[in-house]
């Protein structure tokens, strides 16, 4: 009997799950058609129907990473500083699932840095994340929970802090347990909330472009 559309979609889901398991175990450096075929219990010939080249496989893996990241549950929080805290906690590897996702993402950096188009795409994604965080920071400033200053610069600093903490936790999970990661983040936010207001001097925006003042707040 010929395969139905449902059969094809089910097979594609199986292939995607096999790609994800290879990524979780071996990272992007171990992502090959042979490895995925072995995980799936199929031949590499079958996989070429889905991924004719290694680049097609990598592109699918990156799409899968973004889809899973966007679909995972987020922490609910009020507005203001609690919302900033929740957004930053969502980045950290505090659970087994979040740790696996972060391991895969960090392993993808080398692949992205070796490809100009992927580097640009990653740059835009991190910029969008900073913009969302900037809006949360600006809201916390309006409520008086954070001092005045360039919200874009504060967002860039906070993003840099948590990404550095992600790397530390992945390489030394014994020292950087979920509880300690949370404590370090709370220490960072406490220091941020208690520091004097920043001078309104020309600085760079969250995207790195020169600015003559704080960027306007806009409405992942």
What Rg do the Cα atoms give? 20 Å
Mean pLDDT over all positions: 85
What is the 3D form?
elongated
Strand order of the largest sheet: 1-2
What string, H for helix and E for strand, traces the elements in order? HHHHHHHHHEE
Beta-strand percentage range: under 5%
Q: Which parts are unreliable, with pLDDT below 50 for 5 consecutive residues or more?
A: 201-207, 209-220
- SSE-based structural type: mainly alpha
Helical proportion?
55-70%
Distance between the termini: 44 Å
Kindly state the number of beta strands. 2
Number of helices: 9
Main sheet characteristics = 2 strands, antiparallel
Q: What do you see in this structure?
A:
The protein is an all-alpha fold and 220 residues long. The protein is 65% helix and 2% strand. It contains nine helices and two strands. It has helices at 5-26, 33-40, 44-47, 54-71, 81-89, 96-113, 116-142, 151-171, 178-194, and strands at residues 203-204, 210-211. Strands 1-2 form a two-stranded antiparallel ribbon. Helix 4 packs antiparallel against helix 6 (96-113), helix 5 packs antiparallel against helix 9 (178-194) and helix 8 packs antiparallel against helix 9. The chain is elongated and about 60 Å long. It starts with a helix and ends in a 9-residue tail after the last strand. Mean pLDDT is 85; it is low at 201-207 and 209-220.
